[in-house]
Amino acid sequence: MKIKNILFFLCFTLVVIAANSQDFSSKNQLLKFKQFSLTEGLSQSSVLCILQDSKGFMWFGTRDGLNKYDGHTFKTYRYNYKDKNSISNSFKRSLVEDKNGEIWIGTNNGLNKYVTHEDNFERFKHNKSDDSLIDKI
After folding, report:
1. 7, 11, 40, 71, 72 from 34: Cα distances, Å
2. What does the pLDDT read at residue 125?
3. Alpha-carbon distance values, 115 to 14, 46, 55, 65, 111 (Å)
4. pTM (2 decimals)?
C-alpha cells in the first residue's frame, strides 16, 4: 500500500510540475518567422551559418560575406585585400560566441575575431609548423 501511495504522489507531482511549466497563453504560442533575401540586404542567398549573439544581433555567414542584422538593417563585412582589419575571407564556414561575448568567425582563410569597439576583425591563421597553434596575422 505504501508503494502505491508513493508512486501516486510522484506521478501527481510530475503532472503538476509539467502543467505549471507550460505557458498556455495564446500570444506566446505564436511564432513569427521573417524570411530574408537579397532584397532585404542579405549579401548572398546561401546562408552557411547563423548566430544570435548575447546582444541580440543576428549574424549570417554566407559565401559572399558576413551579415550582421540589428532587427532593421543589414551590415555586410567582406574581405578587402587593402584592409588588414577586414575579415580574412568572404566565404564563411562557422560562427560562435564565446563565454566572454567575443564573436569568432571561421572562413576559408583562417579564424577571425570580431572587435566590437572598432567594428572590424582580428585575423588568425593556422601555423603549419605546429598543428595545435594559430598565429595572429
Report:
1. 46, 41, 11, 11, 12
2. 78
3. 47, 25, 14, 16, 13
4. 0.70
